[in-house]
Amino acid sequence: MVAATESLRIGDARAVVGQRLIGFFAVSLLLSWIPWIVLGVVDANVDEGLGALVFALAASGPSLAALVMWLRYRRTDRMHKQVAWSWGWPLAAVVLGCAPPVLAALLMGVDGIPQHASSVIAGAGGPLGALAYTLIAGPLSEEFGWRGYMQPRLRRYYGRIAATVVLGTAWGLWHVPLFFLNGTGQHDKGLVSLEGLLFFLGLFPLTYTILFVSERLRGGVWAAVLLHAAWNLSEELIPPLSSTGLWVELFLTTLIAISVGLLWRRSPQPQLTASQ
Q1: Is the pLDDT of residue 201 over 50?
Q2: Mind listing the pLDDT tens digit for each residue in 91-132?
Q3: Element (H or E) spanning 274, and its range?
Q4: Which residues of 88-103 are buried (b: 16+ CB within 10 A; e: fewer)?
Q5: 120-129 contacts: CB < 8 A, separation 24 or more?
Q6: pTM of structure
Q7: Whose CB has fewer CB within 10 Å in the chain, the N or C terminal residue?
Q8: Separation CA 36–CA 50 (nearest Å)
Q9: Distance, CA of 101 to CA of 259 (rounded, Å)
């Protein structure tokens, strides 16, 4: 009888968390997709002026959605943060984030990396401008939602692989409108293309690696922000890879995810949790 009652209680709690995760994702899509669709319909320039401002605000949909959910359920939905401040997870986040794009470029013998990097940095107004843009455009605007809100709640009831699949799918689906907006990297790839396919596939091993640095290394959402920023900046500073280079990059991203998974299996660590 006690076991049945406990099972019912856990089932009810799981249902509540599931409903709130669905609510979070719905709000994320609402805040991001509607402005992006409007920008696409009017064919706005997302690189400057009002179009850039609207685009940036819409890109913050996941983090803003996390804030909305926290305000709505702040009395019953509290996070139990377990961030261990050290040099370990920041270093790991930067290295693991940079490694796939950088190693893929080196293995493919990509030419003109210094010149391309200099051009990108100059276009951003210098190193500080490039760094600020990289942190804001993606890491800060997304990660408080994906890894700050969604990930620990998924991990309360699901294993690492299941959580990675769900979160990677949600992350990929959220990006879909960007393939129809001129001026975005996704638009350059094309939704129905090999580059588009590799983009979506790469999100899953990347999601697992972010899970490792944020949970196993106890870096929390800040480790996710740092790894995401390292990845984005590396990809910006390197000339576009060929199709073969993108396959190499995906292979390296997957290899890193498998490696950290094996390491995690040998030395398990208590997971980050969240209350209802």
Answers
A1: yes
A2: 999 999 999 999 999 999 999 999 999 998 998 889 888 888
A3: strand 273-274
A4: ebbebbbebbbbbbbb
A5: 120/236, 120/237, 121/237
A6: 0.91
A7: N
A8: 13
A9: 17
Mean pLDDT computed over every residue of the chain: 90
For residues 193-200, give the mean pLDDT: 96
Structural tokens at position 62: 């996941």
Residues sharing a CB contact under 8 Å with residue 2, sequence separation 6 or more, in sequence order? none
Q: Which of 224, 206, 220, 204 is nearest to 269 (CA)?
A: 220
What is the per-residue DSSP string for 28-45?
HHHHHHHHHHHHHHTT--
Establish how many alpha carbons lie within 13 A of residue 88's alpha carbon, considering only the half-sphere containing its beta carbon: 13
Whether 49 shows a pLDDT value over 90: the answer reads no
- Using an 8 Å Cβ cutoff, are 207 and 164 in contact? yes
pLDDT for the residue numbered 7: 55
Structure tokens of 94?
């930067």
| Cβ–Cβ under 8 Å, residues 213 and 207 | no
- Give Cα 221 distance to the centre of its chain: 10
Lookup: tokens for 28 = 């994320």
Read off the tokens for 242.
């060929």
Report pLDDT for 10.
62
Q: DSSP characters for 142-176?
A: HHHHIIIIIHHHHHHHS-HHHHHHHHHHHHHHHHG
